[in-house]
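USER: My hope is that you can spare some time for a protein that puzzles me. I am handing you a single protein, as its sequence and its fold in token form. Walk me, if you will, through where the backbone shape changes along the chain. The protein I mean follows directly.
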Amino acid sequence: MTSSAQIGSTTSVHIIGGGLAGSEAAWQLACAGVPVVMHEMRPVRGTEAHQTEQLAELVCSNSFRSDDALNNAVGLLHEEMRRADSLIMRAADAHKLPAGGALAVDRHGFSAAVQETLLSHPLVELRREEVAGLPPEDWDSVIVATGPLTSPALAEAVAKITGESALAFFDAIAPIVHHDSIDQSIAWKQSRYDKVGPGSDQAGDGADYFNCPLDKEQYEAFVAALLAGEKTEFKEWEHNTPYFQGCQPIEVIAASGPQSLRFGPMKPVGLRDPRTGRRPWAVVQLRQDNALGTLWNIVGFQTKLKHGEQVRIFRTIPGLAHAEFARLGGLHRNTFLNSPRLLDPTLRLKAMPRLRFAGQITGCEGYVESAAVGLLAGRFAAAERQGRVQAPPPPTTAMGALLGHITGGADASTFQPMNVNFGLFPPLSPSEEGGNARGKERKQALARRALNDFDQWIGPTRQAAA
């Protein structure tokens, strides 16, 4: 382990945070020949969630989810990371446990392997210290990978730079539905009073929302199901964190009175069901959530219902009986940036380009997604340090789709953390192999295209780093 912040003529890149994203970024930099100084505040300052001082500690589950590269977007991301020489995937594969089609790991063996590998690399230095506030000005290249439990001093400093309001709160997240799973024989497109919104095509008809109608009986049954549904319990350290203003869970609104949703997110005013010619008793609206139009957000449906309950209850909504969810609702104490507004395509903070961000603080969700964004941040920083140009991976790849979503593809006004999913990928054109396929065949065609495009991207990248 080196003790100098400068080796030869190459100045170190500083990484704040020793979780999965920070560890992966450090590995990618070191493998490219760029020295790294990692700053990890544990055990000098602990967090409410971590139990050890190990790098890449798995705080919650020990599962990296599906390892099926051809049928599951996270499995595809696994494979792309392996092809990019990911340390996180190398350690996960070396310490995997039986888990069917999922990749589960021995959490202690996994973290120990990551830490041992990094600390044995001659270009990696680890400093056990908290970086309170902004990094020193002479750190000209910094990757901030501090996760969803970023220290208050650093979070406050970032908030001041960006002009964003306080970052740590319970953000109640609304579910997102795949466009092609909405039953358009029931749901129709219309904006209230046919108004054209600021994001609309001004030459269009202003039909910006899908509308799912409920009659009085359906509405009352839906409210009853919400109130009876099993809810997620808060962790002890989350109890005193308030809801973010304006994002109350839908079941909390419903509990305030039987008609509260009809005068809130389910109000039917300004809408007319084309099948009946009348205004419905209540309506559930879905709004486009990404530039591709493949993902639609259920408006105002932030929730703390358990995931299984969400699927069961929300599929009782007319038009959503066969809904496929790209993201289910949730409630988290979280720290994350409005990345589509604040970060450039190489994860640099527009207001202070010497700072890059990686991992969950960028608004990706999940172990593998966090590590993948760390991998990209490390490669971007290495190229910058060495005077090279590193193009982002193609948007047709899992890494490129995830990166594109958090750095511009998502709607900044509704941005919330997201797992990788096939809804983030550009659709196949009819002329492409599998372009007219649906279901499993469509996913496999997207995966094959992704791996082919990823191999073309990673090839010259490997040569440049050699």
In short: Confidence is low (pLDDT under 50) at residues 197-204, 242-246.
